[in-house]
Amino acid sequence: MIFTIEPMINASPDWRISIDRKDGWTVRTLDGFNSAQFEHTILVTPTGSEILTKL
Fold it and tell me: Which key words are in the record (predicted)?
């Protein structure tokens, strides 16, 4: 199985977001504060796991 972990960190005290209706993908905070997002892709097998996107 392969899955991703995608945390999003916001500089805003308000955690609410909106998704861009044009592309259905872009996420923004409602108050326009800066945000950062990153992702790890993880492979899980019967014998263990491996992070495929190591920093």
Answer: Aminopeptidase, Hydrolase, Protease
